[in-house]
């Protein structure tokens, strides 16, 4: 299961059945599984920052099954929030009573899971682009919402995924206000959005933003929209929350 | 045999109608009450407290413990045939006397209640009491005193009255916190170049520094020997150790990499001939 990159072949997402040693190569990251005895494997990972993680994995059967899959970008450098703050590189302008559908790149992380019959155990996670894994604050320091922050560009469609680094997400924006509005950023709870993968590509559940007037206040109502696809669904790293939407203020 | 023994105890009068048997029954009720209270507290801590916020769990635990103790005390008094209304009348007189004698104890008790109601800080919060020079993690707001674990690992007990009346600076109430350092560069150095170098180094090597709000740079002073720049960065409230202690190192490294001089204090002396 290897994908062709311009110079180096990186390992694809998917399930790997390990009977002996395995080496997975990802951008700036090297992962090695080594069979140390009949009922134990060792795990070694070195990332772009030179950090090394080593683990021993005892197993019941002769072989070990693992899954390499994209996960939500919430864990590097530390898990502090479940919200995502996407800042568009260019503003999107919507005139009054209009709607638009766009695709954006959204950063991802990669999870390594131990596969059991019906469940997945998280063994490790990595980010292949640690420089684009930072925090941002939406709102004021005392009452604001801490988010993972990323400056993102528009994608052409679901095939425009940036392998191992960014997935593609559809955003449907509807402006029901009586005046035009520019959108430069969105903040949403990404734990509501599932990720799907195929080979080295990732797509993410979309969101629908409705800009509307409520009493005297203009708000943007952000809701998750589930994707219907035949791509494989990534295991959930964090508990999936039951909240379905959040609201942003219009500035 | 046992019945005869108990009969004997019931006939042994101590004071008024108080017999050894009734005192024994009262003791069993109180001891049973204490044991039940401790078991209830233990079960609550084991099965329910982990799912509740720390301070709520502590308060409910105290309520359960002392509630059972009060109920068993009432059971004890009724088993002895004690009329509490009489005690209350007599207690009124003593209350004034005791009130004066235990003024600070009562004050600490009342302050503890106010602290629980007002909640200026919760269990586990990092706080600073500037008046007392104490910083650390709030461990417990007890009946008479509160406990703060200082950053050196020692635990300080603070009487509730002092805790309630002092200024409390909460370091964990806001979502984010700000770290700042000051650095001087030589007059020959390019200020914008220095700021850009520091900004890039922070972006690349300090993952806990927030991108929004961006790091802020203020030219603070044209000093005797250097142009002083103040650097402000924001970070998640729990990650102070990933920002403040390493910020100055990062700034120094950025300036070193760019060849920007951090000058020593210097004097330019002009002699008469010059």
Short overview:
With 251 residues, chain A is an all-beta fold. Chain A is 0% helix and 60% strand.
Major β-sheet annotation of chain B: 5 strands, antiparallel
Q: Find the structural class of chain A using helix and strand composition.
A: mainly beta
The radius of gyration over CA of chain A amounts to: 20 Å
Low-confidence stretches of chain A: 1-5, 239-244
Mean pLDDT of chain A: 86
- Tally of strands of chain B: 10
Number of domains of chain B: 3
Order of helices and strands of chain B: HEEHHHHEEEEHEEHEEH
- Proportion in β-strands of chain A: over 45%
Query: What proportion of the residues of chain B is helical, as a percent range?
Result: 40-55%
Going by helix content, strand content and strand pairing, the class of chain B is alpha+beta
Please give the radius of gyration of chain B in angstroms. Answer: 32 Å
Sequence of secondary-structure elements of chain A: EEEEEEEEEEEEEEEEEEEEEE
Number of continuous helical runs of chain B: 8
Distance between the termini of chain B: 120 Å
């Amino acid at each position: 299961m290897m994908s062709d990159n311009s110079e180096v072949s990186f390992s694809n997402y998917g399930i790997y059945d390990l009977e002996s040693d395995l080496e997975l190569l990802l951008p700036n990251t090297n992962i090695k599984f080594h069979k140390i005895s009949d009922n134990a494997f060792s795990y070694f990972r070195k990332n772009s920052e030179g950090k090394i993680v080593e683990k021993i994995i005892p197993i019941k059967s002769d072989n070990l099954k693992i899954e390499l899959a994209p996960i939500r970008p919430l864990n590097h450098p530390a898990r502090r929030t479940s919200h995502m703050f996407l800042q568009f590189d260019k503003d999107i302008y919507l005139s009054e009573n209009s709607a638009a559908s766009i695709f954006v790149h959204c950063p991802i992380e990669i999870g390594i899971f131990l596969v059991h019959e019906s469940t997945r155990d998280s063994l490790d996670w990595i980010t292949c682009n640690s420089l684009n894994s930072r925090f941002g604050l939406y709102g004021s320091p005392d009452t604001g919402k801490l988010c993972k922050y990323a400056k993102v560009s528009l994608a052409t469609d679901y095939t425009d995924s940036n392998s191992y680094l960014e997935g593609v997400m559809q955003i449907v924006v509807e402006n029901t206000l009586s005046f035009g509005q520019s959108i430069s950023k969105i903040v949403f709870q990404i734990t509501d959005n599932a990720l799907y993968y195929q080979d080295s590509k990732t797509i993410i559940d979309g969101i629908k933003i409705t800009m509307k007037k409520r009493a005297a206040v203009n708000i943007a109502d952000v809701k998750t929209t589930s994707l219907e696809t035949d791509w494989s669904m990534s295991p959930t790293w964090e508990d999936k929350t039951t909240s379905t939407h959040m609201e942003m203020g219009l500035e | 045999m046992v019945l005869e023994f108990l009969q004997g105890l019931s006939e042994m009068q101590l004071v008024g109608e108080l017999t050894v048997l009734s005192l024994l029954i009262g003791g069993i009720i109180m001891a049973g009450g204490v044991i039940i209270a401790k078991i209830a507290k233990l079960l609550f801590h084991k099965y329910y407290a982990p799912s509740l916020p720390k301070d709520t769990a502590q308060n409910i635990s105290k309520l359960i413990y002392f509630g059972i103790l009060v109920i068993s005390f009432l059971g004890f008094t009724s088993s002895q045939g004690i009329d509490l209304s009489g005690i209350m009348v007599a207690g009124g007189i003593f209350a004034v006397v005791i009130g004066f004698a235990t003024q600070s104890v009562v004050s600490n008790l009342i302050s503890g209640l106010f602290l629980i109601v007002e909640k200026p800080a919760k269990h586990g919060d990092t706080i600073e009491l500037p008046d007392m020079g104490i910083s650390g993690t709030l461990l417990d707001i007890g009946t008479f005193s509160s406990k703060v674990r200082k950053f050196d690992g020692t635990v300080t007990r603070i009487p509730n009255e002092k805790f309630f009346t002092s200024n409390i600076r909460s370091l964990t109430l806001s979502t984010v916190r700000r770290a700042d350092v000051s650095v001087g560069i030589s007059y020959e150095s390019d200020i914008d170049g220095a700021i850009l170098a520091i900004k890039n180094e922070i972006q690349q090597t300090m993952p806990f520094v927030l991108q929004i709000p961006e790091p802020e740079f203020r030219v603070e002073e044209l000093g005797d020997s250097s142009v002083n720049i103040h650097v402000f960065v924001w970070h998640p409230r729990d990650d102070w150790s990933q920002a403040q202690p390493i910020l100055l190192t990062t700034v120094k490294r950025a300036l070193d990499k760019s060849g920007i001089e951090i000058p020593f204090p210097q004097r330019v002396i002009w002699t008469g001939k010059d």
